[in-house]
Amino acid sequence: MEQTSREAERWSAALAGSGEAFAWLFDLHRDRVYRHALRMLGNVHDAEDVTAGAFFELWRRRDAVTLVGGSVLPWLLVTTSNLSRNAARSLRRYRSLLRSLPRSEPFSGAGEVAEERLKVAAEEREVREALRSLSAPDAALIAMTAFEGFSPSEVATALGISDGAARTRLHRARGRVASVLASSAAEILTTGPEEGAR
């Protein structure tokens, strides 16, 4: 309670133009925002970019930020979810462009290294894909309740929807995530490890 009260005071100071207060908020929340971005993207560099982008948006849109329980963290996490989805879309377009370019022969052993990395990251990738299959609010609901420990009502406030709507959407989103994860597992079982890893 004391922490959220202090945070609300620092946020008021930041709104009044205090760079020191904003830096305090950055120090307070950067690790959780970064972990959330990393969970959504699976890439350290992209997660760092999205973390910086989330705090930039916090400052740029400061007059429209809604505090939840005296904290800007829920707003930051929703923004991080949205920026992560945008970054993932950009990355897919970039990879698609790279695939369309002529290629030289791969280095010896590069395929084996890539395959090993894909196997290690398979579970995380499946979870990210499942989250990407959802709308931005539903992905935020799942990520913030499952990974960040927020209650559905706190996430509802951050998203600007009713508590009942948040609980209904969360229930449906959990079902969709379970379905996507089950489909991914089924695909791996029916195609074999090499095809399923692609």
Features:
single chain, 198 residues, mainly alpha, Rna Polymerase Sigma Factor, Chain: A, Arc Repressor Mutant, subunit A, 2 domains, 9 helices, 79% helix, 0% strand, disordered C terminus
Nearest-integer average pLDDT: 81
H/E element sequence: HHHHHHHHH
Principal-axis shape equals globular
CATH topology value of the largest domain? Rna Polymerase Sigma Factor, Chain: A
CATH secondary-structure class of the largest domain:
Mainly Alpha
Low-confidence stretches: 188-198
Number of E-type strands = 0
In CATH, what is the homologous superfamily of the largest domain?
RNA polymerase sigma factor, region 2, helix turn helix motif
What's the helix count? 9
- Determine the strand fraction and express it as a percent band: under 5%
Using the CA coordinates, give the radius of gyration: 19 Å
Distance between the termini: 47 Å
Structure description:
The chain is mainly α. It has two domains: 1-103, Rna Polymerase Sigma Factor, Chain: A (Orthogonal Bundle), CATH 1.10.1740.10; 112-198, Arc Repressor Mutant, subunit A, CATH 1.10.10.10. It contains nine helices and no strands. It has helices at residues 2-15, 19-41, 44-60, 73-100, 110-120, 122-132, 136-146, 152-159, 163-196. Helix 2 (19-41) packs across helix 4, helix 3 packs across helix 4 (73-100) and helix 7 crosses helix 9 (163-196). The radius of gyration is 19 Å and the shape is globular. The N and C termini lie far apart (47 Å). Mean pLDDT is 81; it is low at 188-198.
